[in-house]
């Protein structure tokens, strides 16, 4: 099952990567086409200006009328400034603000800006006088020049929205799979647990160690709790006021009789004042048990587990600390992803479902508070207390 989950996730990522690649190719082709259009328009405008300059030289006048106007009207959104060659005084301008033409410093900066965008053209009239023609980009060319930036931002936004939508749909699909799996597990457990109940009742009538029968009965009761918890996944989950100390304590007491001799399990909750919160007892107890089981697996047969409840209004914190192998920081968030597991056995669903129970149902948080490889891990549950 674990391999199937990982395969499905890899396939989803592969499809997502293909979508991103197609978007990138489309964007590159679009930008290349736009760049070609901009280049041709720039060349056309330059030809218009040079034709205009040539016409003025042939006519021997810088007057802005007649043939000159007719030629310029083909690209009349092109700004230009004509300066006398010797004194560099303003002769003529088009689409240039008076704030610039009447201010020498601003005019000088504008001329430098135009010369940087396009080489100025020297116009030699019939009388031998020279004039310098400075020109810039037309409004159309300016808009097209900056349009790729807008286009890239638009493509990035659409790509981001597409990825978010894809992930949302994939998450919804995965959630349906987990819910179906949980309910089917609960259904399948129903028949053997009913049969085992009958056998426990039978064993109570036999001349055997009744203490052992009692422990078997506790395990069977716990198994029925597990089935009940799985049946609640995906259903409406009513929350009720409960004593968190006792609930966590029951999980600790159950584990104390079932852990190796070289493992020490401590709990401070029964020695402090009761802390109440709105929870679903069956599901929340399962989360605590899952954290205890993970801590026990991390110890590999020897070490210490400390379960502590701490109150900082309006929140309460439940910390499960072990002295096990620890979790690399790069995996602190990955351990809550479906299918992720560092163990050779297991489906990698425990912490994923735990996060769903704590965050979606109880509006709390569950996360790695602290961990160091070779020294241990502290997992934390954060809940609001009952006001």
Low-confidence stretches: none
Radius of gyration: 38 Å
Order of helices and strands: HHEEHHEEHHEHEEHEEHEE
The percent range for strand residues is 15-25%
Distance between the ends: 43 Å
Query: What is the CATH class name of the largest domain?
Result: Alpha Beta
Description:
The chain has two domains: 2-137; 236-384, Heat Shock Protein 90 (2-Layer Sandwich), CATH 3.30.565. The strands form three sheets. Strands 6-8-9-11-10 form a five-stranded mixed beta sheet. Strands 2-1-4-3 form a four-stranded antiparallel beta sheet. It has a two-stranded antiparallel ribbon with strand order 5-7. The protein has nine helices and eleven strands. α1 (2-59) packs antiparallel against α5 (139-203) and α7 crosses α8. It has helices at residues 2-59, 67-72, 98-101, 104-117, 139-203, 210-232, 244-256, 281-299, 350-361; strands at 80-84, 90-94, 121-124, 130-135, 240-243, 263-267, 276-279, 303-312, 315-322, 365-372, 376-384. Helix content is 55%, strand content 18%. It is rod-shaped and about 130 Å long. The model has no long low-confidence stretch (mean pLDDT 80). It is an alpha+beta fold. β10 (365-372) and β11 form a beta hairpin.
């Amino acid at each position: 099952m674990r391999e199937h989950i990982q395969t499905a996730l890899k396939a989803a990522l592969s499809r997502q990567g293909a979508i991103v690649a197609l978007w990138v190719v489309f964007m590159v082709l679009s930008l290349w086409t736009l760049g070609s259009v901009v280049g041709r328009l720039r060349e056309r405008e330059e030809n218009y200006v040079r034709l205009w300059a040539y016409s003025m030289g042939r006519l021997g006048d810088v007057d802005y009328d007649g043939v000159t106007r007719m030629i310029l009207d083909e690209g009349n959104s092109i700004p230009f400034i004509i300066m006398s060659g010797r004194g560099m005084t303003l002769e003529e301008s088009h689409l240039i603000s008076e704030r610039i033409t009447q201010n020498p410093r601003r005019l000088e900066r504008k001329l430098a800006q135009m010369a940087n965008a396009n080489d100025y053209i020297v116009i030699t009239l019939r009388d031998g006088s020279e004039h310098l023609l400075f020109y810039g980009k037309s409004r159309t060319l300016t808009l097209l020049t900056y349009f790729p930036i807008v286009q890239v931002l638009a493509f990035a936004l659409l790509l981001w929205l597409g990825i978010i939508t894809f992930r949302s749909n994939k998450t919804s699909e995965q959630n349906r799979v987990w819910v179906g799996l949980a309910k089917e597990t609960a259904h399948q457990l129903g028949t053997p647990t009913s049969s085992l109940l009958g056998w426990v009742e039978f064993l109570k009538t036999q001349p055997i160690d009744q203490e052992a029968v009692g422990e078997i009965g506790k395990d069977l009761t716990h198994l029925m709790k597990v089935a009940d918890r799985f049946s609640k996944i995906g259903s409406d989950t009513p929350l009720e006021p409960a004593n968190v100390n006792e609930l966590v304590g029951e999980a600790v007491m159950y584990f104390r009789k079932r852990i190796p001799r070289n493992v020490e399990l401590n709990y401070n909750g029964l020695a402090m004042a009761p802390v109440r919160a709105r929870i679903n007892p069956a599901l929340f107890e399962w989360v605590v048990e899952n954290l205890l089981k993970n801590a026990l697996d991390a110890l590999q047969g020897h070490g210490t587990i400390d379960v502590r409840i701490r109150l900082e209004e309006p929140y309460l914190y439940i910390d499960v600390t072990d002295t096990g192998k620890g979790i690399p920081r790069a995996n602190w968030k990955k351990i809550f992803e479906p299918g992720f597991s560092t163990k050779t056995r297991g489906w990698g669903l425990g912490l994923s479902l735990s996060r769903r129970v704590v965050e979606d149902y109880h509006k709390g948080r569950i996360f790695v508070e602290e961990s160091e490889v070779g020294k241990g891990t502290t997992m934390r549950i954060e809940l609001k207390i009952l006001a």
